[in-house]
Write a structure and sequence with these properties.
Largest sheet: 4 strands, mixed
CATH architecture of the largest domain: 2-Layer Sandwich
Radius of gyration: 21 Å
Structural class: alpha+beta
Order of helices and strands: HEEHEE
Number of strands: 4
Strand content: 25-35%
Number of helices: 2
Helix content: 40-55%
CATH topology of the largest domain: Translation Initiation Factor IF3
CATH class of the largest domain: Alpha Beta
Shape: elongated
Distance between the termini: 67 Å
Length: about 120
């Protein structure tokens, strides 16, 4: 009985591990594909883009990233990560531009939180 139980736990664990790894690889492929697709998203700090007309407004979007102070992560890379997340979110909504980008930083005792907000639009 104990041998059967141990064998069942071992096989169950192997199945769960396999399914988790399989799911991760699919998510990784999707993220890589989306990362390449965001190159056509225009991001600007202004409320208009010269030469473009806003055809549709999707709404305000925001994204966050939290980084420990102990890690050697530059703030530029952290901001790039937050803006990329914002671009992915805008692209998934159908937008091809983000207007009025704002980036805020909050420093806490053990971490930094970076927040990016913008208006997702189609131009």
């Amino acid at each position: 009985m104990l041998l059967e139980l141990s064998l069942g736990i071992l096989i169950g664990g192997a199945v769960v591990y396999y399914l988790m790894r399989r799911g991760r690889s699919k998510v990784g492929d999707e993220k890589r594909q989306v990362r390449e697709d965001t190159s056509d998203v225009i991001v600007t700090y202004s409320k208009t883009i010269p030469g473009y007309e806003v055809k549709r407004i999707y709404g305000v979007i925001e994204s966050y990233s939290v980084f420990p102070l102990e890690e050697d992560v530059s703030q530029d890379l952290a901001e790039e990560d937050v803006v990329h997340k914002l671009m992915v979110k805008a692209k998934s909504m159908g937008a091809n531009a983000i207007l009025d980008l704002k980036i805020e930083r909050e420093t806490f005792k053990e971490h930094i939180r970076i927040k990016a907000t913008g208006l997702a639009v189609r131009v």
